[in-house]
Design goal:
The protein is an alpha/beta fold. It is built from 9 helices and 9 strands. The chain has one domain: Glycerol-3-phosphate (1)-acyltransferase (3-Layer(aba) Sandwich), CATH 3.40.1130. Strand 3, helix 5 and strand 4 form a beta-alpha-beta unit.
């Protein structure tokens, strides 16, 4: 049997089209229902515009069949720059259900149908990968943090295969190495690992059905993912560190990558046992 044929057999055994269609319909209906509420919240309520996205993401992970195992806890200090590895689009709802914060995302996401509108309503900071704009974007992030907003950063710059953590890009960490914040800025690393499918440890063969990376097409991958059973995800909140303890952005990036990689590797090792 060829690799392609084996993959097609796995698709049929693991992913249910009926389950995927039901979950997708629920997700779309729920999203369309909550969009007007978030629009009003952004316009008129400082508290609701933060609480509604958390509620939304909590319901989304239930629709997606995701079960979280949370280790540690997110800090109560503010402002916080949360730094995480990135495995799939579902990371957004996973972290969004646990943290009152806005995401830092590549500018292309703002143009995606539906997802772009959701990101804007969640007050996502969109970043363009142009060196000439680096200083302005850093200053914008700094103002958001100075105003007390928490931010979530995926410094790999893309999603990975769920086995390895890619090298962190240090450019955006410059916002954490500045001293212009009204309060002490904390940096909290977070590790995400997809560990079980229906209670069975996920092998490397199965990870491509969950991790979205490389040149995978979004819609077919999403439909396959939604057709899977219940996925268990381990989320590890590591010790928050004041940014003032680091000498520069590169040291912050190296520290976060080391801690997050170690946390993900421990979960992945447990997954393989």
């Amino acid at each position: 049997m060829s690799v392609l044929q084996a993959g097609q057999v796995l698709d049929k055994r693991l992913s249910s089209s009926i389950r995927a269609a039901c979950r997708l319909c629920l997700y779309i209906l729920f999203t369309l229902a909550i969009l007007p509420l978030q629009i009003l919240a952004v316009l008129f309520s400082a508290k609701l515009k933060i609480y509604i996205p958390v509620f939304y993401h909590k319901l989304c992970i239930r629709i997606f069949g995701i079960k979280l195992r949370v280790h540690g806890k997110n800090t109560e200090e503010t402002p916080v720059l949360y730094v995480s590895n990135h495995v799939s689009y579902s990371d957004i709802s996973i972290l969004g259900s646990l943290i009152e914060a806005s995401f830092v995302s590549k500018a292309e996401v703002s143009r995606w149908p539906l997802f772009g509108q959701l990101a804007k309503l969640n007050r996502t900071v969109f970043i363009q990968r142009r060196r000439s704009l680096a200083a302005d974007q850093r200053d914008h992030l700094s103002r958001r943090l100075a105003n007390g907003d928490n931010l979530i950063l995926f410094p790999e710059g893309t999603s990975a295969d769920g086995v390895h953590v890619l090298p962190f890009k240090s450019t955006l960490f410059s916002v954490a190495s500045q001293n212009g914040h009204c309060k002490t800025l904390f940096v909290q690393p977070v590790s995400i690992s997809y560990t079980c499918l229906d209670g069975i440890p996920i092998s490397r063969v199965l990870l491509p059905y969950i991790a979205w990376y490389g040149k995978m097409k979004l819609v077919p991958h999403l439909f396959t993912f939604l057709g899977l059973g219940n996925v268990t995800v381990d989320v590890k909140f590591h010790t928050p560190i004041p940014s003032s303890q680091f000498k520069d952005r590169k040291e912050i990036a190296e520290y976060c990558q080391s801690v997050i990689s170690a946390g993900a590797n421990r979960s992945n090792y447990g997954r393989r046992k």
